[in-house]
Write a structure and sequence with these properties.
This protein is an alpha+beta fold. About 55% of the residues lie in helices and about 15% in strands.
Length: about 170
Amino acid sequence: MGKDGSESQVVELVDEFAYSEGVCFDPERITLEGLYCDQLSAYRARRVWEETLGHSFLLEPKHDFILRVKAVGSEPRYALRCEFLTACARYAFWRLTNNQAPEAQYIIETAHIPQAESRQDELWTAPDLKQKQEAAALQQLAQMGSQVESDVGGISSILMKIVQRLRGAQ
């Protein structure tokens, strides 16, 4: 994009797309972001992310990375964002987003789920880490798909009426 500000507009539009719960990453901003349906899950994930980044990559909070939880939109959703600041932290980010640390990646993906036998199904079905633009694009495609389904339903009913009229005219 050019220097006329169009690049920042594109980034802002991508940020405003709604995406489903789970963890996404933004390779340009070197951030991880988790979206959760309640505040408790967001803060539980924050604690687990901090422990995981410390134990798996020897990173220090507030020096190597910053974790923030904030409310998102009018719905009761909470976003947890992790910004990687130092070179060591950026390397940890690269390892997480390029399948080089699968254990740590899995812990981050499932950090919001309480450790209980009744929640085992959620641990198995937790969404995989994906690029933020990819997640927004998937959400947009899903919305377009439902729109196409309703349009096709309308078109097919119109075609059926036309066929019925043609048959009646014969």
